Amino acid sequence: MANDKNKRLDDIVAQAKKYQNEREQSYRGRALKLYPWICGRCSREFTNQNLRELTVHHRDHDHDNNPSDGSNWELLCLYCHDNEHSRYIEQVRYGTSENKSKNNTSTHNPFADLESILKK
Question: 56 lies in a domain?
Answer without folding.
Answer: yes
